Amino acid sequence: DTGVSQDPRHKITKRGQNVTFRCDPISEHNRxxxxxxTLGQGPEFLTYFQNEAxxxxxxxxxxxxxxxxxxxxxxxxxxxxxxQGDSAMYLCASSQDRGHQPQHFGDGTRLxxx
Amino acid sequence: GxxxxxxxxxxxxxxxxxxxxxxxxxxxxxxxxWYKQEPGAGLQLLTYIFSNMDMKQDQRLTVLLNKxxxxxxxxxxxxxxGDSAIYFCAESRAGGGNKxxxxxxxxxxxxx
Lengths: 114, 112
Hints:
The complex is a heterodimer.
Chain A: E1 5-7, E2 10-13, E3 19-24, E4 31-37, E5 44-50, E6 53-56, E7 65-68, E8 75-79, E9 88-95, E10 104-105, E11 109-113
Parallel strand pairs in A: 2-11
Antiparallel strand pairs in A: 1-3, 3-8, 4-5, 4-9, 5-6, 7-8, 9-10, 9-11
Chain B: E1 4-6, E2 9-13, E3 18-24, E4 29-37, E5 43-50, E6 55-58, E7 61-66, E8 71-76, E9 85-93, E10 101-102, E11 106-111
Parallel strand pairs in B: 2-11
Antiparallel strand pairs in B: 1-3, 3-8, 4-5, 4-9, 6-7, 7-8, 9-10, 9-11
């Protein structure tokens, strides 16, 4: 069990560029969550998947944000036309869905917009 | 509405006990969690408690839950320098897909 893996760990890009982050959950975890954490704050829920189905996306911050999990395994989070306010840590978590199972987090992708 | 609050900072001496407090507003919270975050890293799950319980102990960690007052605390016994980190309280609700609502975090500093 290698834990939740996120790639890249750091991303620096210019304003207006598109970025894509990847998350590989713990194997056999069929729930996958994305959160955003800004400096000095706790993580803020964005969206989650049960297998390949995206069950809630109302918290995605704007239509520039989208997430996919096409085969029910890894997931990608894309931000189009990045803005300076998108600078944050993007965290992925996964859990099993039988009974109550806590979420386990990856180390995150830190995004810096120049 | 959903709101989780924590004090921002706590400083203790090595070997003392630390108590980190959290209040929440959502009476439908089912599980409450404590996560630890070290600089530049993700969140490490420490422990969690079901809302029907009032206490849970796990080695040096003791969680107390006062559901009536919506107050959660984390006690760390024999605090060590390696415990220095930010500690987040979080809650989840039934039927919410288990998504978590976090507090702003408490920075724990352990001094020699």
